[in-house]
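User: Please fill in residues for this 392-position structure.
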């Protein structure tokens, strides 16, 4: 009985100890799994879990961003720390502020604006402004459409995504002017996707989807005829010819996708949008990222840097998260079973002791009666017979 009770108590101790060790992981796993359909809640759950594991994580990441000369990313980590009430060293906050001031100075902005306008490549707000300006003046889209259109006309390798984005951009630019900028996020989104494609910063899955969607946006034979007399120096004629080949009814998916990218860029910055395009595997990822950017603003880049695609979708690790919950459940069941077994054995021991005490009382009572009867018959006192009974 003593061994069985010790075994049950050991089970309680083991299950309770393991439960205490597993519980933090199981709690975080449960929060992440419950939030998997909401990108904002998912990001919050993952950031909370990461901060519990490493309270100095945000400061370390900000330092690394400064070392990489990415002031925008460092500022994103500072914003995230402020939102989570995490105290950062004052000198770190000051250095980030100084780096951002230099990065956004008028001279740097003008230089990047010019670079974006001429080359059509953007990686920050300055160069994006130049790129969007070039596309709004149709210079950028005409340049890209003519280049890829010529490739198509001569049977050369053609980037259908760039061609489709440029053709869609020409149509959207006209709508942007007509609506006084009402579709500017779409215009900016098309430019961002085009720029990301040029520098290879779009994820493989997203590239495949976008290229497939863009392939049907341009009528090949019509575009080949249009390219015969196309020229950057005849913009009006060229734009009209390209618009003739553009199939607006086929552009719905790309336009919605570009709108989501533009919204990310508007709320999280150009680099936030480019980071999103790099980690996204499809338009649904970008749509979820746009919801995250609307809610988190400048914190978005930091969240994407920390968790990659996992910032917007539970893409990997679900099995491991499930294992934490599985082990937590089993430890809880083991603890309940051990408590039940211990309770049963203590109860059984108590009942056995009670039964033994009752038997002893009954035996003592019978002995008293026997002594009384024997004393009566022998005409002696009961105490005098007690030693005789005790020795048999």
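Assistant: Residues filled in for all 392 positions:
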């Amino acid at each position: 009985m003593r061994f069985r009770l010790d075994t049950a108590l050991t089970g309680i101790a083991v299950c309770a100890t393991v439960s205490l060790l597993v519980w933090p992981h199981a709690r975080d796993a449960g929060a992440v799994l419950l939030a998997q359909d909401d990108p904002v809640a998912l990001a919050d759950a993952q950031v909370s879990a990461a901060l519990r594991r490493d309270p100095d994580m945000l400061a370390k990441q900000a330092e690394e961003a400064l070392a990489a000369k990415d002031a925008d990313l460092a500022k994103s980590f500072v914003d995230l720390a402020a939102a989570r009430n995490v105290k950062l060293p004052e000198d770190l906050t000051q250095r980030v502020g100084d780096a951002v001031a230099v990065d956004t100075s008028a001279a740097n902005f003008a230089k990047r604006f010019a670079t974006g306008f001429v080359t059509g490549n953007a990686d920050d707000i300055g160069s994006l402004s130049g790129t969007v300006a070039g596309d709004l003046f149709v210079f950028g889209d005409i340049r890209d459409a003519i280049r890829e259109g010529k490739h198509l006309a001569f049977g050369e390798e053609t980037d259908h995504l760039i061609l489709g984005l440029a053709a869609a951009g020409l149509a959207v630019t006209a709508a942007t002017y007509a609506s006084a900028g009402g579709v500017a996020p779409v215009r900016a989104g098309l430019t961002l996707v085009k720029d990301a494609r040029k520098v290879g910063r779009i994820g493989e899955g997203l590239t495949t989807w976008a290229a497939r969607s863009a392939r049907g946006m341009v009528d090949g034979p019509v575009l080949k005829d249009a390219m015969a007399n196309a020229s950057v120096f005849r913009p009006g004629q060229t734009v009209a010819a390209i618009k003739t080949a553009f199939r607006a009814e086929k552009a719905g998916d790309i336009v919605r996708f570009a709108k989501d990218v533009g919204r990310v860029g508007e709320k999280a910055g150009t680099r936030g949008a480019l980071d999103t395009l790099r980690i996204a595997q499809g338009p649904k990822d970008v749509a979820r990222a746009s919801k995250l950017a609307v809610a988190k603003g400048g914190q978005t880049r930091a969240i994407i840097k920390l968790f990659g695609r996992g910032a917007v979708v539970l893409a990997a690790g679900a099995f491991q998260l499930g294992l934490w919950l599985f082990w937590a459940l089993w430890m809880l069941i083991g603890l309940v079973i051990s408590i039940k077994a211990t309770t049963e054995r203590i109860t059984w021991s108590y009942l056995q002791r009670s039964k033994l005490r009752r038997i002893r009382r009954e035996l003592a009572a019978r002995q008293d009666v026997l002594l009384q009867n024997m004393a009566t018959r022998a005409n002696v006192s009961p105490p005098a017979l007690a030693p005789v009974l005790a020795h048999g």
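For context: Residues 102-305 form one domain.
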